[in-house]
Design brief:
Layout: H1 2-5, E1 11-16, E2 21-25, H2 38-43, E3 51-54, H3 60-67, E4 72-76, H4 79-87, E5 93-95, E6 108-113, H5 124-137, E7 138-149, H6 157-168, E8 175-182, E9 185-186, E10 190-193, H7 197-205, E11 209-216, E12 220-227
Parallel strand pairs: 3-4, 3-6, 4-5, 6-7
Antiparallel strand pairs: 1-2, 1-8, 7-12, 8-9, 8-10, 11-12
């Protein structure tokens, strides 16, 4: 993310625990609005007031919303993401986990979780706890704009085989174990929960939210959650 902020091109790799590897451009972290996926462009139109971006990366969402006049705050577990965002002119960016949100009650009007960050904490109980915390730190008309993946829409054999393996391990189809590789750096293995719209709705209902609408483009989608 620091390289992205410096305009250094390259590739990074996301490896799944069954051996599947996805190759992605580093400069994806810098995409302007017109290069975002359609579901994100539509979803971000629901942003209002003060915004918290969870898993802010190199700040593509924060920069866009700040340019529109929003007060923005970002959090990320990667120190390099915090540095990259500050380099791009975002003042309020913090090294913080979505599982331990240290903000005041009703501080935000909008929460953004793009890049599948709805499921960044992995297990459903942790996601419910996070959503309950987001309920506390958002205003009465608070909204969550969250990206995830409708994993059952795929016909990719490797994904279908992974779903089968997950069921055999008594894990949800969309619970993936991944790690990231870049240059000579390799992260630890982490769980990422990819939730179908029905699963997102179920998890939201456990924590004072409801899925108001979704924008979908095949497997990836953005859900807009409002307080129930």
């Amino acid at each position: 993310m620091k390289d992205a902020a410096d305009g250094i091109d390259g590739e990074y790799f996301i490896e799944r625990d069954d051996g599947r590897v996805e190759t992605l451009p580093v400069l994806d972290y810098m995409k302007p609005l017109l290069e975002w996926d359609n579901q994100e462009r539509l979803g971000i139109q629901h942003a209002r007031g003060k915004v918290l971006d969870i898993g802010c990366g190199a700040g593509r969402v924060l920069v866009h919303l700040q340019n529109l006049g929003h007060e923005v705050v970002g959090i990320d577990l990667a120190p390099g993401a915090v540095e990259a965002c500050k380099k791009r002119g975002i003042k309020n960016v913090y090294h913080m986990s979505a599982g331990n949100l240290k903000f005041a009650d009703a501080e935000f009007d909008t929460i953004v979780m793009f890049g599948n960050n709805f499921g960044v904490l992995g297990d459903d109980d942790s996601i419910i706890n996070m959503l309950q915390s987001l309920h506390r730190i958002t205003s009465n008309l608070g909204v969550i704009i969250a990206g995830s993946a409708d994993v059952v829409k795929t016909d990719d054999k490797s994904h279908l085989n992974y779903h089968k393996m997950n069921l055999e391990r008594r894990r949800p189809k969309g619970l993936v174990k991944i790690r990231t590789k870049y240059k000579d750096l390799v992260s630890g293995w982490e769980d990422l929960r990819l939730a179908t719209p029905e699963e997102m709705q179920f998890l939201a209902e456990q924590s004072g939210w409801k899925l108001e609408r979704k924008y979908q483009n095949g497997v990836p989608y953005v859900g807009v959650l409002i307080k129930s």
